[in-house]
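Fig. S4 source data, part A: sequence.
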Amino acid sequence: MKFLSPVLLVCRSKSLNLLGIFLLKRLGLRQIMTTGDEGKALNRLISALSPKLIIIDANFYLDSTPRRVGLLLRDRPELNITVCNINSFQPERLVDFLRFGARSVIDLSFGVSKFRRGINRVLLNQEYTSGNILEAYDNLSDDTPELRIDSTARQEDVKRLIWAAKKGKEIANILGVSIKTVEIHKKALFANYGVENCLELNRQCFLLGEIRRAEVCVV
């Protein structure tokens, strides 16, 4: 039986590091790469290693993990990403990973044997999602809002000026647009990132590795 390799194991918790040991010893993989880095460092690692499979701890980016997976897939739709839930998220929360485009989501709370079966499946380049997560996905109501993470070039300009602590009127003057247009772009950004104001937007961008704590934007 031939498994996919190399595999990039992205984790924060010791429990998922134990999964790496299991993958090495029990499944015969020759290469497991584990990182505790976030954001841009992870992007660089993926570019350098070109893994055939990325296994991400559901808790790696804490509350922003589903959106981070979506951002990765927005830039690299060809990635094969599997999310493993060791002990943190409920099935209703794990549904977001599927909605953001993860190929497989495996929940340990659904049973150890089924967890290992799922890992084996994804290592054979097959899709696998635990039954409780599929059930939660099927039970989504018809009026569940669509998740969006795409931003236009102008929205990216507005976002970077928000990072630089520019106010609405300043952003409008710099970009040569009306304040009303700036507010429209800000509203779209808030919806994309699931936030309600500029402070929350900056925090979410920091959690996603898009911005460093002391970063200053030069336009």
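Fig. S4 source data, part B ends here. The mean pLDDT is 82.
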